[in-house]
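Example 4.3 (complexes with small molecules)
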Amino acid sequence: MIQYIIKRFFMMVLTVLLIATLTFFLMHAIPGSPFDDDRTSNPTIQENLEKYYKLDQPLPVQYANYLKAIVTFDFGPSIKKPNDSVNSLLARGFPISFELGIITILVAVLSGVTLGTLAALRHNGIIDYLAMTFAVIGISIPNFILATLLIQIFAGELKWLPAATWQSPLHMILPTLALATGPMAIIARLTRSSMLEVLTQDYIKMARAKGLKPSRIIIRHALRNAMMPVVTIMGTMLAGILTGTFVIERIFAIPGMGKYFVESINNRDYPVIMGSTVFYSAFLVFMLFLVDIVYGILDPRIKLHKKEGESS
Amino acid sequence: MLREQVLHNKSTGKPTFEGKERMEEKILQVEDLQVTFTTFGGVVQAVRGVTFDLHKGETLAIVGESGCGKSVTSNAIMGLIPQPPGKITNGKVVFKGKDLTSFKKSDLRKIQGLDVSMIFQDPMTALNPTMTIGEQLTEGLRTHHKISRVEAKTKAIEMLLLVGISNPSERLNQYPHQFSGGMRQRIVIAIALICEPTLLIADEPTTALDVTIQAQILELFEEIQKKTGVSIILITHDLGVVAKIADRIAVMYAGKIIEIGTKREIFYEPTHPYTKGLLNSVPRLDLVEEELEPIEGTPPDLFAPPAGCAFTARCPYAMEVCNLVYPVATSLSEKHKVDCWLQDERAKGLFN
Ligand SMILES: Nc1ncnc2c1ncn2[C@@H]1O[C@H](COP(=O)(O)OP(=O)(O)OP(=O)(O)O)[C@@H](O)[C@H]1O
Ligand code: SF4
Ligand SMILES: [Mg+2]
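Answer. The structure with iron/sulfur cluster bound is encoded below.
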């Protein structure tokens, strides 16, 4: 187990470095510089600025500096917001994004699994059809369209809920709904189909033959086995929710990390792009690691220490 | 009955054709049981009127081709027919004087696992891969009896020892994948027996196991029956298994029992042409030179079973009446019954 974690840790570091390197070169492949806009059109000022931010140095040197920044996790000040360091931006924005992400995941998993299980238990019944119709709609509407729809209906027409910002639980409802519906629909469909399969297994029949209560059979015997495929897709789903927060934060004017990230790309704010990319990739890689641990706990047949040579 | 008791005196525990003692008490009576399944293709008449009874401590083997309704019959007794698509359309399952087919689900649960237990064919799939052996062993016990975790564990250890698993207290915390196929089947048997049921239904308990393990499991059945006096319904394709542990044999064909009798009667005086065919289609150690004769043809479509004898199309002795009218049951001895027109007085005249 410990051996596995150490191995996994090195893989994780390697993955993050790879992502960071890719981002670095992609970023520099885009033409232009952070000082392209009007105020700094004076070439001398621009040169001085580039010197100040060490952007005049050859690319390999910049790359080395950048690697150093990653290791020390100090990306210096933002170019566009000179009063803010990248770290302070992260410290301000990330907790809010994290809140949105976690609530979304909880809502998506809990309601998706419940819905899928109910649909499977009422196979071909009304609940099943309703749930699956809902799931198909949920999967096919992109979250930004759903977000605008929700704002228009619940904030615009009905005036039940605030249209934007992130101040109280009431403010959280619409953004979370917009972001969670897609993943929830996917989880519901997956849970339903895997639950239907699990319910035909011999061990379920055996559990019935023991005279166990249906509730125990579903919760103790079926659900854990039915959850395996759901856990498997959690990795990709997390990545999807993560990028989703950027979009949703922008629509709902939520002051999370997404706002800074998108702005930084538009402005070529190199330190911010770099810092948030490295931070987010490290975060995601760590979440994927957690997913694998959960998988190992759910399925005793999976021996974590035997999963050598596996990448991710 | 008399003859069996006489034979019993010679019993040495070897596979012989003797009956067992104390078989008077009837614990199960299945009367004209009919089960259908509604599918997209129509209604399958899986079991079309099955009647038999079972005594205390007795082993009844149900044999027959794949799809003849053996599993459906046993599931119906257990109350495990999925409804829908399944439905018990007629008949009774009288267990200890009460008709289980009229029971509510919640009342059935009080019998399932406690009075009637079941063993499934494939030990690789019958155990939940994500639960420890200990929990799977004790959960039935703890559902039916209000006992503590510790008491349940003690009982579980006792059961594992009974079925021949060493180191039981450590084994309880392990998962199914940590056991071999034969050991898993022993565990399944332990689970089925932990509440000391009166009736054990074993649906092909040895089919998925290799031959040496099969023999061990069969010995285990005999041993347990001796110790606990449990009645067993054993479903199998394997006449070798039947020869080893059955007291009586019911031969099923297309959803009906077409012949039933003691093991000796079925093996030495098979009367129904299908039973004869079945016996001729398996290798027998005592008849080395004899050629095997598989039964030609296939069983009838259970969506639209024939009105008469379902074996007509494959029967070398089929008469005109066979296809039209179902044969009346003929009692050849106290326990030996057969459904075939050849046993009718009028037909006997015809063939002699
Ligand atoms: N859930 C079900 N839905 C539809 N038809 C079914 C269902 N279960 C069983 N049947 C049908 O009932 C008939 C009898 O099946 P059963 O499983 O009892 O056969 P069996 O004698 O146990 O065969 P095998 O030796 O292969 O196990 C078959 O024709 C089968 O197709
Ligand atoms: S009733 Fe007729 S068809 Fe059926 S087994 Fe007897 S002889 Fe053959
Ligand atoms: Mg079967």
